[in-house]
């Protein structure tokens, strides 16, 4: 068994309490013991970051490049081992875990490059003899709060830009997946980054997370997680006048039109609905299908969903791993019950599975004959549950796709350029996919949504600079 301590001012500590990290594929497998800090540890980490921020602010682009490049290199070299730890504690399949670890490495490499590609402008003034300079400066200490479903990629896509643009960091990772956060902190600790610039403090969100969002030395909060938590964080940040960025839930639509290639549409819906056990903010849980293809599509997709192999995340051949924990499994099964009570027809899955290992297994569930007003189509379930909604034509499908409180990702399967272009223009989501799953994005371009899914500026790619820097305009009369 491994310890997953916190990193505060360059020192490893196990905190006030410890928490077992349980493998959701096999609850008899305790992955390790994680530190559970209290507010004193959080306070020390913020003080350390605040003290170290001044030095890192004035580090050279070369120093920053070297640190981020070293972190990216080590993650990529150890992707299999890191991916295995991730899959063991989170439950996504091993190829998904390795893929996520690799992505974290690529993100650090991307932002290493950004350290050298600085942004700024030098302009002529409207007044004679004066020069104007617009430059980006770091904010100071950034507090990062992350969810359990991408245990290494989400911390990476917040830490890398924060450091690249010269900020100090305190990360509060999700308590269900402390191993990946610890492994990442260990790599960062050995990268040559001065002590105190990066700190990890795991503990209860309502305690240490809450202390972080209200702390006067924290300049900004970047949060990914549920809408409910995000709303509270936005309120606290507004009261404290902190910069804030929130990435939250989704109820992402996938439109399948009569002229879609059936195989492409089925593949995209199975991938975005059920891979990673449906536990992705970009998962498509509403499949909106036009009448002409509806019956053929339902036949093909229900066969494909029933054939998915559910099993231990680390077993070869597993396509869908377990749900993260008992609470989430109970919630998923409850939504299956709610869907049936609302009059939806369950064509496959939706049952608790007893497999060789004692884990949180459930068969992927597909509803048909659903209406967009049903709770299963309005509320984020965050599990392997998707529903089909029939639409008369493209116009109705588009209206249904946009009729949601969320707006993260939206997909369309069609061979028509006209409908694809129209959907791209009129979708009310932050990301649009044509003939592709709604989940699965690149790391060098912006990520984020609209409406209830996101708040504040975009994450990732060059757009990350908007959140992690503040602009200064300097006037100079030589
Ligand atoms: P959550 O909101 O329960 O927790 C997220 C983080 O917030 C955790 O680290 C938690 O400890 C912390 N937290 C909880 N209460 C807090 C408080 N009062 N103050 C400060 N921090 C607090 O979410 P979760 O269950 O870990 O993750 C699942 C959710 O994340 C889903 O809704 C999913 O859609 C969303 N998500 C969104 C994206 C995106 O980019 N849009 C990506 C992944 C996950």
Automatic annotation (TrEMBL):
The active site is at 247. PROSITE patterns: ALDEHYDE_DEHYDR_CYS (PS00070), ALDEHYDE_DEHYDR_GLU (PS00687). The keyword Glycoprotein does not apply. One of its GO terms (molecular function) is oxidoreductase activity, acting on the aldehyde or oxo group of donors, NAD or NADP as acceptor. The keyword Zinc does not apply. Keywords: Oxidoreductase. InterPro entries: Ald_DH/histidinol_DH, Ald_DH_C, Ald_DH_CS_CYS, Ald_DH_CS_GLU, Ald_DH_N, Aldehyde_DH_dom. Residues 12-473 form the Aldehyde dehydrogenase domain. Gene3D superfamilies: Aldehyde Dehydrogenase, Chain A, domain 1 (3.40.605.10), Aldehyde Dehydrogenase, Chain A, domain 2 (3.40.309.10). Belongs to the aldehyde dehydrogenase family. This is Aldehyde dehydrogenase (NAD+).
């Amino acid at each position: 068994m491994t310890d997953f301590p916190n990193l505060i001012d360059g020192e490893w500590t196990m905190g006030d309490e410890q928490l077992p990290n349980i493998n959701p594929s096999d609850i008899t497998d305790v992955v390790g013991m994680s530190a559970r800090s209290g507010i004193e540890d959080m306070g020390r980490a913020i003080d350390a970051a605040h003290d170290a921020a001044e030095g890192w602010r004035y580090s050279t682009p070369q120093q920053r490049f070297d640190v981020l490049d070293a972190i990216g290199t080590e993650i990529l070299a150890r992707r299999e081992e890191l991916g295995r730890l991730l899959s063991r504690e989170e439950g996504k399949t091993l190829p998904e875990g390795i893929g996520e670890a690799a992505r974290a490495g690529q993100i650090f490499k991307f932002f290493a490059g950004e350290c050298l590609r600085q942004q700024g402008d030098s302009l002529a003034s409207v007044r004679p003899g004066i020069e104007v300079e617009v430059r980006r400066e770091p904010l100071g200490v950034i507090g990062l709060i992350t969810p359990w479903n991408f245990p290494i990629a989400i911390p990476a896509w917040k830490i890398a830009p924060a450091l690249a643009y010269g900020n100090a960091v305190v990360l509060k990772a999700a308590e269900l997946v402390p191993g990946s956060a610890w492994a990442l902190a260990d790599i960062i600790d050995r990268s040559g980054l001065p002590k105190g610039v990066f700190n990890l403090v795991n503990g209860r969100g309502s305690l240490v997370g809450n202390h972080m969002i209200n702390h006067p030395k924290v300049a900004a909060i970047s949060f990914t997680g549920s809408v409910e938590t995000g709303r509270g964080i936005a309120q606290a940040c507004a009261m404290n006048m902190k910069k804030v960025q929130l990435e939250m839930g989704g109820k992402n639509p996938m439109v399948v039109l009569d002229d879609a290639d059936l195989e492409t549409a089925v593949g995209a819906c199975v991938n975005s609905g059920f891979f990673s056990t449906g536990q992705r903010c970009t998962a498509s849980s509403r499949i909106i299908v036009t009448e002409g293809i509806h019956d053929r599509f339902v036949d093909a997709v229900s066969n494909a969903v029933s054939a998915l192999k559910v099993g231990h995340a680390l077993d070869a051949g597993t396509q869908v791993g377990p749900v993260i924990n008992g609470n989430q499994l109970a919630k998923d099964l409850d939504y299956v019950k709610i869907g049936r009570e609302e009059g939806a027809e369950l064509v496959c899955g939706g049952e608790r599975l007893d497999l060789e290992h004692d884990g949180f297994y459930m068969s992927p569930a597909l509803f048909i004959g659903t209406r967009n007003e049903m709770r299963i189509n309005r509320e984020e379930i965050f599990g392997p549950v998707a529903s089909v909604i029939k639409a008369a034509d493209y116009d109705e499908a588009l209206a249904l796709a946009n009729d949601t409180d969320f707006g993260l990702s939206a997909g369309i399967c069609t061979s028509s350029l006209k409908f694809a272009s129209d959907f791209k223009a009129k979708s009310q989501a932050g990301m649009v996919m044509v003939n592709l799953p709604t989940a699965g994005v690149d790391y060098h371009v912006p990520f984020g949504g609209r409406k209830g899914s996101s708040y504040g500026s975009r994450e990732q790619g060059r757009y990350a600079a908007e959140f992690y820097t503040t602009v200064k305009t300097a006037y100079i009369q030589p």
